[in-house]
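Recall the central idea of this unit: under ordinary conditions, the amino acid sequence of a chain determines the structure it adopts. In this exercise we apply that idea directly, starting from the sequence alone.
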Amino acid sequence: MYRKYTSIRISLIILLAIVLFGTLSHHFHRTAIQTTPLSTAVHSLSTAPPPPPPPPPPIITSPPPSTLVSLSTSSPKTISILIPDWEVLVIADNPTLIIGNYTCVFPNKATSPARLAGELPFRRETAFKCEFPARNRRRLPFLQPQLVLMEGRDLGEVNPPLIELLRWNFIVYDSFKTEDDVVLLVKGVNNRQGINRPPSDFNCVFGDDVLTAVKVPVTSSVQEIFRCPRPGLTGDSPVSATLEILENNRTVAMIPSLVKYVPDRRRTVEFNESKSLICACTMVYNVAKFLREWVMYHNNIGLDRFILYDNDSNDNLRFVVDELNREGYDVRTVYWAWPKTQEAGFSHCALYSNQLCDWVAFLDVDEFIFSPMWLDSPQPKGDMLKSMLPKNPHNPIDRVGQVTIRCNEFGPSNLTAHPLDGVTQGYTCRRRVDQRHKSIVLLDAVDHSLLNVVHHFKIKDGYRSSQVDSNQAIVNHYKYQAWPEFQAKFRRRVSAYVIDWRQKLNLMSNDRAPGLGSEAVEPSGWAQRFCEVHDDRMKVLTRTWFGLNDTGVMAWQSA
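Accordingly, the structure predicted from this sequence is:
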């Protein structure tokens, strides 16, 4: 009898344990769902069923928009993005992190050196870059590193949180506030040139709390540029700014964001300087050895200011810029961390330079504006470019908002290395037929959408583009240079909508160098290619203007 009661008692205890375990499991499951961030719960364009309880250890698959990850008291707050070529862009919230050797430490203790890349403009944040370790590429999810100053620290003391890396192909990466609205720069929505989703598919969202965030409709959706009215917030505390995707007026996705919005700031950047008539804007990477020639030449024919969007150069660009500024030139740099965003960068420059310039020439550093009519001038003149612009661009009868100039493409001209006396002196052989055009744009005439095709913009209704006759002006584009220079260019295609030469797609595209293929391997006879016309007019002109006596030394070599 005793054994019978003992058996019943044990059965009741087991039954109570099962009921208690089920109740606790249900409670933990509800808590996990209720605390899931919106950016995790709403992550696709279709409505998903409630997620199951996260398995241990918990991994946050995407932090709330624009949240910097707090790591420890000895490390800066950071957020990390996986960008092309297995690089990790680490954004730290402390702009003074420039002293010491930092390391990216990943959750499995894999490490890679962190290189200081630059300070993000107007945001008081610093960007570092490190390589995503090869052994971490074989297992998902890809996790964010901790940015650590390892001096005097043991690796065992570092315990990065398990937070998934943000992905470059779906993110709000930058912004610009104008006097009237807010511009968000977004990857992963309008991915094909000329194909854009309508503004009604989106809202701009401002605020760190999803329940109290302010939503305003998007007014323009073109390429990576999204514009919306100011949200009506006040105060000087920054809040998250992101983009939500709608379907049948319901939120189906909230895009992760790196952007903060400061309500009381009137404009992202303001200038109190007098306007220049013509400026130049370009995106650059490791162009230090070309820059002096390009700036000195164009400044002497009428370009007043030069705005360089530095796409993470690691040469001595900063030194050369400082040197030019000491000599009296006006050269400004904007650190631009974002890969393959040339169109968005030029849209940003149209906003940035609006208070500095009336007209902007969108040229690359290997492009030089030249007029055959200048060959008889013993010296350059500051009004030479001005003569190509309309005298009254706002004339109601014939409003010209953009002047376009055709290009001659020069080849290696039998050179195997960079010409020390400059590209205008070394490259004298080109293709016969002129090619695509480059533009000088009246900023007040740029369309609200900021749409551009690399070097020319869509302009407002009521304005027109005017093309300069090739006998009046041409752009000498030193495109196919000596192989070591062109090989570097092969790896740095910056346009979002121009094919990557490394991909085996559209091998006959006009965006490719004919006969090059998809690998950075020097083709046979490269030095002799693209030589259909011998053209040394620019060489003669620049030697007349900038040659130092009969020494063979050019003015840009004298520093």
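Residues 1-6, 14-58 have pLDDT under 50 and may be disordered.
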